[in-house]
Amino acid sequence: MTTSLESHSAFLEMFDASHVGEVVLRTALVYLGLLLALRLAGKREVGQMKPFDLVTLLIISNAVQNAMVGQDSSVVGGLMAATVILLLNFAVALVRSRFGFAQRLFEGSPSLIVYDGQFVTEHLRREGLSEADVLQAMREHGIDSIDQVKSAVLEVDGSISIVQKDQAPVTRTRRRFRRQPHP
Length: 183
Fold this sequence. Notes:
Blueprint: H1 2-13, H2 20-41, H3 51-69, H4 75-98, H5 100-107, E1 111-115, E2 118-119, H6 121-127, H7 131-140, E3 149-154, E4 160-164, E5 170-173, E6 176-179
Antiparallel strand pairs: 1-2, 1-3, 3-4, 5-6
């Protein structure tokens, strides 16, 4: 008989909502803290992540789980934490799209990493990039030599944009892009 009562009690614990306020606060604090930490960590595309970057993210996600829900292992607590994360993500996206300063705050700004065939070493160092990372991006763009690069920019999404020296400039006219002939 006690087994039936224990299983009924365990079932009810899954839906215990007594710690919802604490879970909401903890989750919001962890989300904002991680957002700040990842923003300070720099720009990297998921495709550009090195194995140690991926391992770091996986370990962080496991480490902060208990910080978000505390001792609450209920279904309601887990769903509430997930809901708070999604709502905060939506709010950050909304603020970012409406206010220019918020976009710069949350995403940063592009960094010039190559100018006129020369690495901008100070910017590479600040962004945590090596010359080898840039050379790899150049090869992906079909560029053999740094001398062929007019400029390379580390974009806010972590991708590297490259403009070749012999490339015609692109201008936008209404809804179409046109390449301008070389002078």
